[in-house]
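Why show two proteins at once? Because comparison is the fastest way to build intuition. When a single record is shown, students tend to memorize it. When two are placed side by side, the eye starts asking what differs. So, the first record is below.
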Amino acid sequence: MTETASRPTLEAVAARAGVSRATVSRVVNGGDGVREPLVERVRQAVEELGYVPNQAARSLVTKRHDAIAVVIAEPETRVFADPFFALQLRGISKELTAHDNQLVLLLTEGRDDHARVARYLAGGHVDGALVFSLHLDDPLPGLIQGAGVPTVFGGRPGWSDGTRDVVYVDSDNRGGAREAVRLLAGLGRTRIAHITGPLDQTSAADRLDGYREVMGDSDPRLVAESDFTPGGAERAMRELLARRPDLDAVFAANDLAASGALRVLRAHGRRVPEDVAVVGFDDMLPVAEQSDPPLTTVRQDIEEMGRIMARLLLRRLDRRVADEETGAVVLPTTLVRRASA
């Protein structure tokens, strides 16, 4: 006898509970109209027999697949190299698991993948989508909207006009950047450089705005655009040292960028923080605590952002909760002092 044949059937559960097959189907597939005593008898029979409901049959009743797509608008080489994504996925996974939902991970290597992702979402395989790391010219939001899939975005969408139908979770990027630069200025640093993230992403643009709000009309040579990666930050740090060798502080747009900046400063004989103070953004512990010296940084709760994204989407999918009860969530940031500044 095969494993499939030996699995308990709906009829076996009905016989054990002493009810009809239709009653068992309504209970295990989430239907209504069954009296509570019968529900308890069916649940007990399910537990005793180890019956596992058929997901296809369950979907016909509930109109739900209990599966959520997580769409990251980055190539896999970036996703698996950056701990930010692991933290956010962990938060999402914990929340989905707690509500018995499956996570389906979709990555975009290039433009051809956008159409593939849109087709998958439109195909009715998942109940909704969590989308993050968007770039300003990314066609994904329009494609997803065309697929008609309920969506929550990670990070403020660059095309958001503040209407309530855009649901997103973000951190106070601008405020966190202001706090970082104010710390450096409070330490007496006057030539504070900034290594940005990719400026076609709102998080990087907001952090640059926060820097400028404190620095005012500072020397534009103190700003170098990068891409949130250590390698990109190393190139940016070398540019900054070539332009302004007298710089005495660096605010990096994320911790990975700060780690790249630290390596270049050390290679150029600059002591941190004595010669150049350095502040990052994220507070990703594997990076911040193991940097040399340990990194002063702006903490955002990345895992909690993922958890809230999933929670908001599940609430939107729950017919008992009105859409207007969800909306944008912006989490506060905090400055964490370590040895680099």
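Second record. Ask yourself what differs from the first in the token line.
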Amino acid sequence: MAGKFLCPRCFELQSLDSIEYICSNTSTTSKCQHAIDRMPQHPANAKKPVCEECGQPLVTKVCPKCGGELPLNIGTAKSYPIAIIGAKETGKSNYVAVLINQLKNDIGRAFNCALMACGDKTLNRYRTEFYDPLYRHRTCVRGSDAGDVDPLIYSLIFQRKGGLFKKAMNDAVSLTFFDTAGENLNSLASMQTFNRYLYHSSGIILLLDPLQLPAVRDELQGKIRLPEENTDVNTILNRTIEIIRTGSGLTNLSKKIDIPIAIAFTKIDAVDELLDPASCLKNDSAHIRKGAFDKIDFEDANNEMQSLVESWLGMELYQTVSTQFSNFAFFGLSALGSNPDMDNKIPKFRPFRVADPFLWILSQEHIIPTE
């Protein structure tokens, strides 16, 4: 009996035998019309698929339901959809830009892994919409458009070391990043339409802006440029919980949601004067330097962030998270390291602790080691 796969775009559970292919034979000497038309086809031999038009081997897999391109290792590697959500102007797009770049570089070196994009759509979208503005032009990434946005789909390939009786081999997981527009969180109805992936997620990174909190705004009024006020953080959390419970059928409120959720406060550099001078949130974490998830560093940052949340918001946020989720943690980070100017230029680009929520989720799934 054929196995099943869950499409990372439309989340339809389907048989592996139903996967379709797109021919990629566009060579100048023998162009294939099926490749030019990007016509999906279902090969007779799924083990050695070839194009029915030109006879060339088929590599590019697509979902028969939505037509979206699938990872090469679909059905053989475990899939980990990661939802990155937050209200408008919390810095989600900047966060995604830095996180993926770190996965390609610092994290890849530290954890002996490589990040590979699934198809040209992910490759081109990340380069033009995320990497170029931030890393080439040092300007803020433009926020995602409201409505449905294609996710960024990657394979994260780990090179596992061999032993005395065990040879070295590669181990891959499929990652899907959903960078939803802040406007999609403005009402429960829009979240139900555009954020269906939430209840299929392997982990949720909920980005919150401390500059949206009334207590913080009062402290910093007139000292820095404050963003326009947006949806209340507790409202976003409650809507997220309702979407997950409704979509997954977990209507029994006595049972907790088992999806790990990272409550991550962005722009922590902007509230530097409100932190203790010896705060661990002022510098980067030890995870990448050690090549393992550092539990002591994590607990220090988690405890300090919880204390700050209590002083800024009272106990409502913590109580909601702790009663609804079986696995949660608090983080403070900065994707930029400094406040952008009026032209959205970044005067001092120094990201820190950006990867912490993501590495925590990987550690919960035992994908990376923990010290």
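One difference worth noting in the second protein: Residues 295-313 form the longest helix (19 residues).
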